[in-house]
Amino acid sequence: MEKEHKIIDKIDWTLVLIIFLFFLVSCISISSAQTSDQYGMNFVIRQAFWYGIGIVIIGFSLLLEPSQYNKLSYYLYGFGIILLIGLIVAPHCVETGCLVPRKNGAISWYILPGAGQIQPSEFMKPFIILAISRVISSHHEKVRLKTFKSDFLLLVKIAVIAIIPLGLIMMQPDLGTSLVILVIVAGMTLVSGITWKIIAPLFISLSIIGGTILSLAIYKPEILIKYLEVPAYQFDRINTWIDPESYPDEGRQLRSSIMSIGSGEVFGKGFMGKQVYLPERHTDFIFSVIGEEYGFIGSSLVICLFFVLVYHLTKTAILTKEKFNTYVCAGVISMITFHVFQNIGMTIQVLPITGIPLPFISYGGSSLMGNMLALGVIFSIRFYHKEYMFSTSSDRFYM
Asked: Where exactly are the transmembrane stretches of this chain (predicted)?
């Protein structure tokens, strides 16, 4: 009994509560979103099923200690690379019965009998976090005396780990997930200990390049089409983001999203009270449902819940004494934070539409399982390090 009691005490119940609250928000929002005539299936039951699978993933995650994740990181990374290569080399077809279907011009999913669609890039996110965490922590263990050369070598190592999955995901093509990978790499690079003499010029240069490409996409798209061979249809998202009123068809989704959130005003229209029609609102545009039915108050509470999660992860990163664990936390924080800002930003025209879901709330099995796997590693960090990481009992893991 005493041993069972100790095991229960070592579980991060604060994180359990956060996940449970996300589960409630997700099911309530999806339940309302799927009432439109366009849907012929119960997405709430499916989402609850995927949450159940996610809980199982977390349970299995607790079987491994953080040091074991460190040892397995390259194997998991390699497994993710194999899955991504499989999407590229496998025969593609437009039918839903084949292994790798082509949907909307993208080849991002495997169709598995009984399991439905599985998107490997969603699992690549936690895999690349583990791999980069090992690269950084191993580098610092071997290099005791930091120099400009050693820091530059670490940056090259991180770039090599990132560029392979990034290139494979871009080949699908999947711009949204590619951006998430870039943000994960950027966030982990910032906390890697690399000198700012390298990081500052690098980030400034990338910002200038990104700003230049965005400016060309808006004002001179013909240059990108001619010299970079970018397909013309890729500029539709930029054009509809800047001026959705001028694109009746392409900009309908964004206009409807803004109208939905705006019509919710302060307190919203209540559960099932939505009036604005918005296609596929249960996936990437679930926040529009929350904004319309629960208004500014409800939307703010959901955003606050994400802040609580990020705060909890940040506290874990600060309190842990293992460098590998710290970098894992930094990667997960970068991933979730970007997902939230990008998803909510695209529903209110602050950012372009990229098809990035709202973590733990949008419907989607692969996305949810990938996020649960990432949190599973966090659970492991807190489970195995809760008692002996700190010198006093007052410094243990608490909110």
From this structure: 13-31, 43-62, 74-94, 152-169, 175-191, 198-219, 294-312, 324-341, 361-384
Any domain includes 265: yes
If one counts every other C-beta atom within 10 angstroms of the C-beta of residue 263, the result is: 17
Total tally of structural domains belonging to the chain: 1
End-to-end CA distance of the chain: 26
Type of residue numbered 233:
Y
For 41, the domain range is: 2-387
Tokens representing 231? Answer: 């397909």
pLDDT tens track for 340-393: 999 999 999 888 888 789 999 999 888 999 999 999 999 999 888 755 444 444
The string of pLDDT tens digits covering residues 168-202 is 998 888 888 999 999 999 999 999 889 889 999 98
Cβ count within 10 A of residue 323: 18
Q: Does pLDDT of 268 surpass 60?
A: yes
Within 10 angstroms of residue 55's Cβ, the number of other Cβ atoms is 15
- In sequence order, what are the residues at sequence separation of 6 or more whose Cβ sits closer than 8 angstroms to the Cβ of residue 234? none
Rg (CA), the chain: 22
* Out of 2-11, 15-24, 234-243, least confident range: 2-11
Residue 40 in domain: yes
- In this prediction, residue 158 has a pLDDT band, given cuts at 50, 70 and 90, of very high
- Distances 269 to 3, 7, 253 between C-alpha atoms, Å: 50, 44, 20
pLDDT value at residue 3:
55
Domain contains 167: yes
> DSSP H helical segments within 320-364, as ranges?
323-347
* Beta pairing partners, 111: 117
pLDDT digits (tens, 9 = 90+) for 277-295: 777 788 888 999 999 999 9
The model carries a pTM of: 0.89
Tell me the residue type at 382.
Answer: R
Task: Please say whether the beta carbons of 293 and 281 come within 8 A.
Answer: no
DSSP annotation string for 193-233:
T--HHHHHHHHHHHHHHHHHHHHHHHH-HHHHHHHS---GG
396, part of any domain: no
Q: How far apart (Å, rounded) are the C-alpha atoms in residues 87 and 71?
A: 27
d(CA 123, CA 181) in angstroms, rounded, equals 11
